[in-house]
Amino acid sequence: MRRFLASLALIGSLAVCAGARAADDAPSAMAVRLNQLNDQIGAHQVKTPPRDNEDIERAGRKALRQSGAQRLYGLWRVLYAYKSNQVQGRFDTWIARSRLIGRRDDDAALLALADLMVLAYRNETQGYRAFSPADWKRFLEGPSRDVRMMAGVERARHLGQSGQWAEAARVAANLSLEIERRGDIARPLLAEAHQVHSYTLADIGDKEGALDRMTQAADLDERDAFYMRKIERVYDIAYTAVVVGEIDAAARLARLHHEMTRANGDPALRTWDRFLCTMIAEAQANPRGVLGCLVEMKDVLRQPARRLQVMMLKKRVMAHAMLGDAAAARIDLTTLRAVPTTLIERDPQIELLVEAYIDQAEGRGDQAFQKLDNWRRLDRAENDRAHTRSAAEMSAALESELRAKRDESRRLAAEVELNQRLVRASGVIALLLALLVLGGVSWMFNQRRISRSLREARARAEDANQAKSAFLAVMSHELRTPLNGMLGLAQSLRSEELGADQREQIDLILDSGDTLLVLLNDILDLSKIEAGKLEIAPTAGDLVQVCTRLIGGYQPTARDKGIELTFRVDGVPPGPLMFDAVRLRQCLTNLVSNGLKFTNTGRVEVTLAAGPDLASGRQRIRLRVSDTGIGMSEATLAKLFRAFTQADASTTRTFGGTGLGLNITRRLVEMMGGDIGVESQEGVGSVFTVEMLVDPCVADCEVDAEAPEEASEPSFAALHGRRVLVVDDHPVNRRVIRLFLTPFECELIEAENGREALDALDAGPIDIVLMDVNMPVMDGLEATRRLRADPRFAKLPVIALTADVMSAQIKTCLAAGADAHVAKPVDLRDLLSVMDQALSTRQAAGRTARALSDPMASSEPGEKSSKSEV
Question: How many Å apart are CA 549 and CA 556, to the nearest integer?
Fold first, then answer.
């Protein structure tokens, strides 16, 4: 029995010893919390950290594009990140940008933020002495609530560093509640308020409270913290670990901080990394480790310019002294004494202790002992004064923190009581819900029936819209084909010798056909706008040149009516701009043609004004079309921009038109992001004003210049004597082309489809092809693709002739290999110009190629010479 009891005692002793050893090896509760906090930040999980702080720069660029509070908080995040890590160059750059934007927009809050952050940067780097009482009053009592809260964070940090812990804790606690009420936009500011509060709590010994505040900061930072800020959070956790005595946890965090700093690559962060390294080495009583941490800082510490650098110099001089390196310690001590007191206060105790170590190293033991004894007396007295001075502060700070926690507890208790009342009310709510369920079920079935009806109605509307689009596309093609024959034959007849009556009749045919064509184009444009298929495509262009050419084209009409048509630029002409020249020309055409139509005497004036828009940074353009025509009444103005609407029936009878032009103009202007307005008075005239914002052309953009007006009638020399292949399934269209080209002695070869066209190309040489698109057997697109695939015809000019005028259809023609596109009904001058340009371009390219291959050759054997080459 005695042996059995002895065995039990032995086993129990072993178990106790093993448990004690395991407890010694296990991390403390504080170390576990520090590691959990580091995992929560997730900084070590970033696989590819941004280089050159691109995430901060990107956020800054985004903030500059915003306005108001969004811009203010966005720029604060950027400035605070660079300020708290003391990245001088980037900080100065963003301060300059913020001030520039603030002055441009007269943003007092943004200008105040820039001034606040400049002082805060100077305050942290030069010993917390930059702010004057007047500065604090200016920022903390200013008109901007957001800037007051941002200044409050700096005030709490300043008070904590100055040892005024009670006031720092009070300011931080109240500030956190105020920022929390500001909402999501202030989340980053609230995170920093909690972080600053944690510094104060760590200083007064409230370790748990410090970690709680740090955890709240990490929670708020979780979504969108900058990588540099994640590094800073790791530094703060490691610093706190040193303060609370968890040196092993601090060392692990310091290694992570070192890896992240190296991955970031910003040299400004290396100073913080080395300072953290020295703190841990000093806490481990390892002076050689301190010196190892500061090897790469030796150039900076020869003449320290920042408070942090001076603190590093203090640690190095103490390490040299403790290791007995008197010479190095004396050099560092001299440098330390030369630091201006405006940067950091002198520390007589450290200087006396270093001198004692130097005397000991140099064999002056008595002097060393005497100085060490003096240091102990001074240290004891200073500790007593500091204890007396800080005891009240620490007590008040803890009381303030306790009061804040009591307030939070009361708030939580109120929330619990509210939840209990809601639970009690849930029974009544459930009863009411039960009564509503019956009505809800019937309502649901009714809504389903209505929804089904709406879906069916929408389907019918979409089918009708598709049918309308298909109808318009077919009708456009079918109407343009006979129009092509009618207008083409009329243009051909007008070029012949006719009597006065005959010429008048031909002109009436052409005017009627043009009117019908305008109506057809307007209906198609209106259809595309309503279907959402008309797109605005801004390109670089010269707006003054566009307007000048358009007004020049209407001068003959104005002269015939005896009206003065003018164009002028009000102010400085704008440079190249990004705008949709086609749609803007269409709008201006409608306004000018209306002005000429409704004006019988007087003038029509077009005015262009342009200037920068300060709010958006874009160019604001204003086009003003004024006339001295019949004017309009108030009733007419109210319905002016409706489709198919004119002033009254007499207007339609007198002047004609469909009433679509102004409706299309209004819709086009709105699609381009502008507005159109009108002022008018009956019998006096009307003024239409178009205003819109456009982007200025960047430095390297290419401006699509308008082709200059021909000074004289073109000769179309390149067309004479050419063999032209005309491919069209409609005989009238082929007849029209033949009449157009007869004066130029062209030899025409006709084909009814793409297959016949390819056979004709194989049969003999062809100079140019006029290719219809929609044909039986083989359409024009397929025929063009096949001839382009043949090396013999790779450079043969091909002009697409089609009644399809949609932009997508035109792009399809050019993508198939056509050199140009001419819409039906074919305009005589337009067709001849395009053919002449295509042939001239091919001739110039051929001559250039021959000159490069044989500079002495003037032409290839057998090459036909045209009049342009003679």
Answer: 13
Do 82 and 214 fall into the same domain? yes
Query: In terms of Cα–Cα distance, which of 823, 835, 834, 771 is closest to 484?
Result: 823
Range of the domain at 735: 717-869
- Average confidence (pLDDT) over 177-188: 89
CATH number (domain holding residue 604):
3.30.565.10
Q: Is residue 251 a contact partner of residue 282, using CB atoms and an 8 Å limit?
A: no
List the single range of 245-254, 655-664, 787-796, 852-861 with lowest mean pLDDT: 852-861
User: How far apart are the C-alpha atoms of 367 and 373, rounded to whole Å?
Assistant: 10
User: Considering the domain boundaries, does residue 182 fall inside one?
Assistant: yes
Give the span between the Cα atoms of 201 and 411, in whole angstroms. 22
C-alpha to C-alpha distance for 350 and 360, rounded to whole angstroms:
15
Which residues have CB under 8 Å from 620's CB, separation 6+?
Answer: 610, 611, 612, 613, 691, 692, 693
631 and 764 share one domain: no
Cα distance between residue 286 and residue 837, in whole Å: 87
- Prediction pTM value: 0.45
Q: Indicate the residue among 173, 198, 226 that finishes a domain.
A: 226
195, 235 contact by CB (below 8 A): no
Work out the pLDDT band at 423, boundaries 50, 70, 90: low
CATH number at residue 767: 3.40.50.2300
Q: Say if residues 579 and 694 touch (Cβ distance below 8 Å).
A: yes
Domain membership of residue 783 (yes or no) is yes
Q: What is the number of structural domains in the chain?
A: 3
Q: Which of 162, 192, 226 is the C-terminal boundary of a domain?
A: 226
638 and 592, same structural domain? yes
Same domain, 664 and 555: yes
Both 633 and 729 in one domain: the answer is: no
In sequence order, the 6+-apart residues with CB closer than 8 A to the CB of 135 are: 119
Nearest alpha carbon to residue 833 among 736, 753, 719: 719
The CATH number for 45's domain is 1.25.40
Question: Shortest CA distance to 163 belongs to which of 120, 204, 192?
Answer: 204
Q: What share of the chain is helix, strand, coil (3-state, %, to 5)?
A: 70, 10, 25
Peptide linkage before 696 cis (omega within 30 of 0): no
3-state secondary structure 453-498: HHHHHHHHHHHHHHHHHHHHHHHHHHHHHHHHHHHHHHHHHHCCCC
The mean-pLDDT minimum among 107-111, 262-266, 667-671, 845-849 falls in: 845-849
What letter represents residue 653's amino acid? R
